[in-house]
Amino acid sequence: MQLRLQKVNPSASLPHEPSSASTPLVQPGVLVVKRHHVLVRCSHWLNIPLLLGLILSGISIYWSSPIYQHKPDPNTGNFDVAADIGIWICAHVHGQHHYASPPDWIYNHMSLGPGMLALALRIHWLCAYLFMLNGTVYVAGLALGGGWRSLLPRRTDLFDALRMLRYYLGVPFAKLTHREWLHPHFSTKYNALQRAAYFSIPVAGFLSVATGWAIHKPMQLHWLAALFGGFDVARVWHFWLMWLFIFFVVPHVILVLADGWDTLRAMIVGWSTKVDRSEVIENES
């Protein structure tokens, strides 16, 4: 994405002029950075309900034919690992001992529920088509704004990633001991860990779509299913790609909140003021 640093002229704004969330506040000596294209911002926020719908409906679909099975239990006849987890929770967690259907605990709490295959399939494919459309919008935003450059790997990423990992691991201890813990300085839009994560998510999205079609049309798209090792293996790919999104979202939200309001605001209004250099830089990535 093309980033522009703009010097703010204190005389360009009068005290009585109204300000808005989409217009940078004018402060002497502050430089404003354009960070995210409007298409990138819109598609970013739309991914939240779409992924939620895909995950909830996807786990309900999983209920009808679990990937991970074992020999039927001689007492219960159960063969589903997710059902095993539900049975264990109901047996060992306080307050869950009298749950009506222990094998369905996971599906009742993490999906639309068991026995809802038809509805789950409709919702899943509705969200899937919208997810593909939204992904196209996101890629268009990266292309139009030049943001794709900031996602490309650098030669120094391994060293920079270790620096950032040390910083993130040390933040909680610094807070507890009231010590100053300086954030490593980078001249790029994203640090190495962010770049690796943000680069991997579009790749994971593409693989999720590809494996989804391989599962949905295994005969018509037999060549696609074969690329992933066949129908059953494509289901495994699809299942673990879902968990990749979940494992990305949780630390992503925590780290954004830890980084401060400026990072969150940039994804809402597209600009940032977290720059104090005096020079004007074009095409920074």
UniProtKB/TrEMBL annotation:
Listed PANTHER family: CYTOCHROME YDHU-RELATED, NI/FE-HYDROGENASE 1 B-TYPE CYTOCHROME SUBUNIT
Major place of residence: membrane
GO cellular component annotations of the record: plasma membrane
TM stretches of this protein: 44-63, 123-145, 196-216, 236-258
Cell compartments where the protein resides: Cell membrane
UniProt xrefs under Pfam families: Ni_hydr_CYTB
Record key words, sorted: Cell membrane, Membrane, Transmembrane, Transmembrane helix
Protein name, entry field: Cytochrome b/b6 domain protein
Xref: InterPro entries: Cyt_b561_bac/Ni-Hgenase, Di-haem_cyt_TM, Hydrogenase_cytochrome
Source organism of the structure: Granulicella mallensis (strain ATCC BAA-1857 / DSM 23137 / MP5ACTX8)
